[in-house]
Amino acid sequence: MKQTTREWQQLDASHHLHPFTDFQALNKKGSRIITKAEGVYLEDSDGRRILDGMAGLWCVNLGYGRQELVDAATKQMQQLPYYNLFFQTSHPPAAELATLLAEITPPHLNHVFFTGSGSECNDTVLRMVRHYWASKGQPDKQVIISRHNAYHGSTVAGASLGGMKGMHAQGGLPIPGIVHIDQPYHFGEGEGMSAHEFGLARARQLEEKILELGVDKVAAFIGEPIQGAGGVIIPPDSYWPEIQRICDKYGILLIADEVICGFGRTGHWFASEGFGIKPDLMCLAKGITSGYLPMGAVMVGDRVARVLVEEGGEFNHGFTYSGHPVACAVAIANIQLMQSESIVKRVHDSIGPYLQRRWSELADHPLVGETRGKGLVAALEIVQDKQTKRRFPAELHAGMTCREFCFNNGLVMRAVGDTMIISPPLVITEEQVDELVKLARLSLDLTAAKLQE
Ligand SMILES: Cc1ncc(COP(=O)(O)O)c(CNc2cccc(C(=O)O)c2)c1O
Fold first, then answer.
1. Is the CB of 231 under 6 A from ligand 1?
2. How far is CA 394 from the centre of its chain?
3. pLDDT digits (tens, 9 = 90+) for 331-388
4. What distance in Å separates the CA atoms of residue 421 and residue 382, rounded to the nearest whole number?
5. Cα(294) to centroid of ligand 1, in Å?
6. Percent of the chain having pLDDT more than 70?
7. 54 Cα nearest atom in ligand 1
8. Cα separation, 38 vs 146, whole angstroms
């Protein structure tokens, strides 16, 4: 079906409702048609090459065009394209991937519940932790505490666990039994406190909330080690150890949502290791298959797995595509490539520090109030005044303006409000990091000129 860009755009506008999109605005503008990709580069229907600074949606960790992943999918598709895990059946890819995940995740995480996405992971953990406490004779321990501006997906439970007002406003969310405390966003909400004291203050809101609700009502706390879609909110070092201490003190379960942070993104296989926390449950998706096929997995810690296995009876939950065999085969090949190419070590020891060093040079730009990052995820804050950190008036849409300049200059950067984000494939080279930073600086220059018009 060879079409011109305009023809693709017309078909798309006539029939396709995009996620998180103002449909009318996009139809006026016309969608950008991405037709192929290789390494860290996309190509659009006009042949333009674009450096994918977002690895798709934080997920194409091994980059595009990895033939090993295509071969793994083809082989499994030919062998067994689908079978389910419901009828007391399993298949080799599911058993092999579960074993591999138990090996590469922290030592107390030895059981896997497969899903089809990150949102489905979070729906799973909500039901799982409530079932866990009910199985222990404490059915009233139902509440899950999350954070404002968290992102945990778009299903009803995922969006409710998330803390995004715009999502809660559509569909009558959050559902009961989910409450939110403030996020550890020092740049935006630090109120003049040092990072250390701010991290403790925000973590201690968890203890206040537990005591307000009653320990006998609280099932778990959920958090992204680094909040991704909320704007790459990297908590102060004092934050996570205090959260862990409070969870341990009151015996509530700790859920780490590593859909973005997992699989090497922060320079560790899993960010929980880097932040020194020991989650009872860990949600994984995105990088598990480098985005080549949809997959999610909930890692279940021994404390929870023992109760579910020995006392839980049948856990009435699961999905048609839980542990899809082809997705499992691609995930196995993906993880094995990460191991054989020492991807995580390279992020931790070389390309991660290199990117963070080059990225931090942008802090001298007149528009930039702060740069921050860890491993191969980074952000910068666009401000009108560097000293006071005053933002531009919202109606100027500084972030979206910068994002458009990026695209037009051949770079994908994500804008969350006036925070610009990068999360490139983990295989990016130093030369490509240089190109990314150069294009980012050019886009900031163009944005500054536009905002001063
Ligand atoms: C931490 C976290 N948890 C759960 C999900 C949901 O995963 P699924 O999408 O596979 O159901 C996510 C997904 N994160 C996500 C998804 C789509 C867009 C963006 C963005 O930053 O624009 C971020 C996520 O970042």
1. no
2. 25
3. 999 999 999 999 999 999 999 999 999 999 999 999 999 999 999 999 999 999 999 9
4. 11
5. 12
6. 100
7. 21
8. 38
Classify strands 218-223 and 143-147 as parallel, antiparallel or unpaired: parallel
What is the mean pLDDT of the segment spanning 265-292? 98
User: For 23, how many CA atoms within 13 A lie in the half-sphere containing its CB?
Assistant: 9
The pLDDT of residue 453 is 87
In Å, what is the CA distance from 91 to each residue of 109, 268, 441? Answer: 21, 30, 50
- What pLDDT is attached to residue 109? 98
Structure tokens at 251: 């015996």
CA distance 373 to 395: 27
Q: Is the Cβ–Cβ distance between 48 and 416 less than 8 Å?
A: no
CA 265–ligand 1 middle distance (angstroms): 14
Helices (H) and strands (E) in the chain, counts: 18, 14
319 lines ligand 1 (CB under 6 A): no
Distant-in-sequence, close-in-space partners of 361: CB < 8 Å, separation ≥ 6: 437
pLDDT band at 125 (very low <50, low <70, confident <90, very high): very high
Instruction: Give residue 215's pLDDT.
Output: 98
Atom of ligand 1 nearest to the CA of 258: 1
Q: Which atom of ligand 1 is nearest to the CA of 285?
A: 10
CA 29 to ligand 1 centroid distance, Å: 25
- Which amino acid type is present at position 195? A
C-beta 280 within 6 A of ligand 1: no
What is the four-CA torsion angle of 103, 108, 110, 112, rounded to 10 degrees?
Answer: -110
